[in-house]
Amino acid sequence: MVEAAGIEPASASYPQNDLHVYPDLLF
């Protein structure tokens, strides 16, 4: 749930936030 919720807003609102989402998925 956290992954999907973190990717959508990050990719839709802040593409730069993707960098923060990648580590989130790894960890």
What brief labels describe this structure?
0% strand; 27 residues; flat; mainly alpha
List the helices and strands and how they pair.
Blueprint: H1 2-12, H2 18-26
Helix pairs in contact: 1-2
* Low-pLDDT residue intervals, each spanning 5 or more residues: none
Instruction: State the end-to-end CA separation.
Output: 14 Å
Shape: flat
Q: Main β-sheet, in a few words?
A: none
Amount of helix: over 70%
- Secondary-structure-based class equals mainly alpha
Which strand-content bin applies to the residues? under 5%
The domain tally reads 1
What pattern of helices and strands is seen along the backbone? HH
Give average pLDDT, whole number.
54
Radius of gyration in whole Å, from Cα?
8 Å
Number of strands: 0
Count of alpha/pi helices: 2
